[in-house]
Design a protein that fits this description.
single chain, 4-stranded antiparallel beta sheet, 3-stranded parallel beta sheet, 18 helices
């Protein structure tokens, strides 16, 4: 909100009067949403009065972003007009984007559309200033690109040709994962699947726009569910579980060769976790991208895991754990006796020593070109600080770091370890 105060769109008193939640370690998203929108509307109204819409940087943002922003802002305005309903439940004419309906709603919802454009402008401006600050300090930002989009999204509504949908706009098949040792029925994600034949005909134009925009926001892009570009699990729409799905062929190396031609050589991390077939391994090798190694996956008592550091080559990225894992301190407490014994022998450390920090040291000392350590692990926090538990809803992505937790002493410790292992 500081930016909006500095620009004269809000007063400090208005911001201070809002209750965004006061829990030191957890974010109250509902409270933030309900409190923030009235403030943003005030800011928008004042920004208009101050002539924002004629300012060069605002006009430039709208022009630069029109290939996605116009549809997104209309979609969000329509979501408000049809209170929260999935687009498939809207009136038929606008659900199918008939020209007369599009013109009608653009006219009737013009103010709301402009309000959503304003929000994206604020995000873009503030994010780019943050990125510039980080880059000047020598910090690179790693960001995700999910392989799939939600069914109820501006992308699916605005570009149905990109997806496996029927004439009424409903999916014919959806994404998921097959049954495995963790789930006898697999995972039913429900995202619409891509019409890869259409993407190929367009030389992957939508993907190039999407990935290209990611590189405006991030310095390194982590490609989620990399194996889905080799083969993806297709589940008939309406199925209650993913067990009845089957494998379909993805775009393979062609998409990534197109990316290199169109966007140039970019820094990528391939999320290649899970069961890997020979064809997925070959695809990763052909791209030259580094894959991921997660130490929490390494220490089962049989000692044969590919995630053990002595099995690494340079071209990989090692993590103690990811956003989908327990914190490392929490993970240590949930090991079986056999796995815990193997962990201690591998690290050459006893039970009463700081095994969490030793795993951080092991990651830093490995030959992996990049080591990424979650802040929760540097702070040795338990599972109360876990970010996400996959396949659960309602209690994820809420952790926040306590004010003052990143002490000078911790910074010196991280610096010393980073310097020792040549990672400065």
């Amino acid at each position: 909100m500081e930016f909006l105060i500095d620009d004269g769109y809000l007063t400090r008193e208005e911001c201070d009067a809002c209750d965004f939640g006061n829990h030191e370690n957890y974010i109250d998203y509902e409270k933030m949403y309900l409190q923030r929108f009235p403030l943003l509307r005030k800011a928008w109204e004042r920004a208009v009065k101050k002539g924002l819409e004629t300012k060069k940087d605002y006009v430039a943002f709208l022009k630069k972003s029109m290939n996605w922003l116009d549809d997104y802002a209309l979609y969000m305005a329509l979501k408000d007009a049809f209170p929260g309903k999935c687009f498939i439940e809207w009136e038929r004419d606008i659900r199918l984007r008939e020209p007369l309906a599009m013109a009608k709603y653009r006219r009737e919802l013009a103010d709301e559309i402009r309000f959503y454009q304003f929000q994206q402008y604020l995000f873009d401006k503030q994010w780019r200033e943050l990125k510039l600050y980080a880059n000047k300090a020598g910090v690179k930002i790693v960001g995700d690109i999910p392989i799939y989009v939600a069914f109820d999204s501006a992308d699916t509504w605005a570009h149905p040709e990109l997806f496996q949908l029927d004439e009424s706009g409903m999916p014919t098949a959806v994404a998921g994962c097959p049954p495995d040792a963790f789930s006898s029925t697999g995972q039913l994600w429900g995202n619409p699947l891509y019409n890869w034949e259409y993407h190929q005909k367009t030389n992957y134009a939508w993907w190039m726009q999407r990935i290209g925009y990611c590189y405006e926001l991030y310095d390194v892009v982590r490609i989620d569910h990399f194996r889905g570009f080799d083969e993806y699990w297709s589940v008939p729409y309406g199925a209650e579980t993913a067990a009845g799905g089957h494998w379909e062929e993805g775009p393979g190396i062609e998409l990534f060769e197109t990316m290199k031609r169109k966007l140039g050589k970019k820094r990528v991390i391939a999320e290649n976790l899970g069961f890997l077939t020979d064809s997925v391994v070959k695809l990763l090798e052909d791209t030259g991208y580094p894959g991921m190694k997660v130490l929490q996956f390494a220490f089962d008592a049989n000692g044969e895991s590919i995630y053990l550091p002595h099995n690494y080559d340079h071209n990989c990225v090692v993590y103690t754990g990811t956003h989908d894992n327990e914190t490392t301190a929490g993970w240590i407490t949930t090991r079986t006796e056999q796995d815990r014994d193997f962990l201690e022998r591998y690290l050459n450390r006893k039970r009463d020593e700081d095994l969490c920090w030793e795993l951080i040291r092991t990651a830093a000392a490995s030959v992996a070109d990049i080591a990424i350590i979650p802040m929760q692990d540097y702070l040795a926090l338990g599972n109360e600080a876990r970010i996400n538990t996959p396949s659960t809803l309602g209690d994820n992505w809420k952790w926040r770091m306590s004010k003052g937790a990143a002490t000078d002493e911790l910074a010196e410790k991280i610096y010393g370890l980073t310097k020792m292992y040549g990672r400065l």
